[in-house]
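Retry 2 of 3 after timeout on previous attempt. Resubmitting structure tokens to design endpoint.
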């Protein structure tokens, strides 16, 4: 909080000097010069809610001796206006006290809560971001972003909702309807949530692609796209739900050199005709192998990221994770019902399944002959109770004796 000072001096003979305008009842030494200023009663809490009345308990007048504090009440204040379109910036009102005019510095908070409904972010360009909805989005199967929020005080109740950033949703959310005024969607939502544009909305499909132009993120692809499809080069990131709209007509999907991919991406399970991913030359963050499997290059290592759902991976023809790092996260196989068998890279020393069950996997093969591959805690519980684990015959006894594998030791056998 910036302290604004006002000095009050009396030029009289030394034997008659007293403090001027004293908060201390005129008892100070004849040499005392007091400074008066207005500050929040609680340090740094000079923020007020938009369109709120002046709070008689928030600010106090104090002096440089800090011996007393006088509450600032609304009848002492002029120029206070909490309805300005100026957020999180210093504004000044005046406080009248003992024939003095003191500066009161306050800010109008850009955050605003509507009880039991929303947490919001207000911007000076008269737009609203929804940062949280209540009750939590965790149980919702569908949600529609409002165009405006009528419960807000004027003029906020006419401001458009342009951004949505709530992260409380889960995979229970199957459809998410954009607001007409919405220009950005910065939310995790569910991994398989279909994004539905509003009619004549600001965000809409362009040549089959729904792109958040502010974040350069792909939000969805049209069900009408077919054949070999390339994502536009102005896209730099993919949402986990980018490919959630069902499509059986896309056969190959090429990702441009501009795209980076986070490890929270869960593939393209709705693209049931897809037989291969492709990666444009020059992309240093992604690669695709000869079988069309997509990989992320992370911290110098290679991690599998997505498999084409139009191919079938069986015990006789498993998904082979080639050239991956020593660590192999397998959560990317969530809901990949076309994958019945997986073979890890022979360099793998560790694998993990941290979040989701993989009931479709019938066989996991660990071909490395150097040492027993270690599963992360709890990983084996995510496989079905009928899944079998194949290991080199030279390490079979070691696997069956390992504490890490004790819960499934009866289902471990040698690679034929």
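Retry 2 succeeded. Sequence:
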């Amino acid at each position: 909080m910036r302290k604004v000072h006002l000095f009050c001096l009396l030029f009289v003979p030394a034997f008659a000097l007293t403090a001027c305008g004293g908060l201390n009842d005129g008892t100070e030494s004849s040499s005392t010069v007091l400074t008066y200023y207005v500050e929040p009663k609680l340090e740094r809490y000079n923020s007020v809610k938009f369109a709120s009345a002046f709070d008689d308990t928030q600010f106090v007048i104090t002096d440089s001796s800090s011996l007393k504090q006088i509450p600032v009440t609304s009848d002492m204040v002029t120029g206070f206006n909490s309805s300005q379109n100026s957020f999180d910036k210093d504004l000044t009102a005046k406080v009248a006290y003992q024939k003095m005019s003191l500066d009161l510095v306050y800010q109008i908070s850009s955050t605003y809560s509507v009880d039991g409904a929303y947490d919001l972010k207000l911007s000076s360009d008269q737009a609203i971001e929804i940062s949280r909805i209540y009750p939590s989005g965790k149980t919702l199967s569908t949600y529609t972003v409002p165009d405006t929020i009528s419960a807000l005080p004027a003029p906020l109740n006419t401001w458009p909702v342009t951004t949505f950033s709530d992260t409380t949703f889960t995979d229970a959310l199957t459809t998410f309807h954009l607001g007409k005024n919405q220009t950005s969607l910065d939310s995790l939502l569910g991994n398989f949530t279909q994004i539905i544009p509003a009619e004549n909305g600001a965000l809409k499909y362009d040549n089959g692609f729904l792109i958040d132009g502010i974040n350069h993120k792909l939000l969805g692809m049209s069900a009408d796209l077919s054949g070999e499809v390339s994502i536009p080069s102005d896209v730099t990131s993919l949402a986990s739900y980018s490919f959630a709209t069902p499509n059986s007509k896309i056969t190959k999907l090429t990702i441009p050199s501009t795209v980076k991919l986070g490890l929270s991406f869960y593939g393209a399970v709705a693209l049931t005709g897809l037989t291969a991913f492709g990666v444009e030359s020059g992309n240093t963050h992604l690669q695709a192998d000869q079988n069309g499997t997509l990989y992320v290059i992370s911290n110098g290592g290679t991690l599998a990221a997505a498999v084409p759902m139009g191919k079938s991976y069986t015990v006789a023809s498993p998904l082979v994770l080639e050239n991956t790092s020593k660590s192999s996260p397998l959560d990317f196989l969530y809901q990949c019902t076309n994958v019945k068998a997986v073979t890890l890279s022979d360099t793998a020393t560790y694998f993990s399944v941290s979040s989701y069950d993989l009931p479709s996997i019938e066989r996991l093969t660990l071909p490395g002959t150097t040492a027993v591959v270690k599963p992360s805690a709890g990983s084996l519980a995510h496989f079905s109770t009928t899944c079998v684990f194949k290991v080199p015959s030279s390490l079979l006894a070691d696997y069956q004796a390992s504490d890490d594998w004790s819960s499934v030791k009866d289902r471990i056998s040698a690679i034929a």
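Attempt log closed. The longest helix spans residues 396-401.
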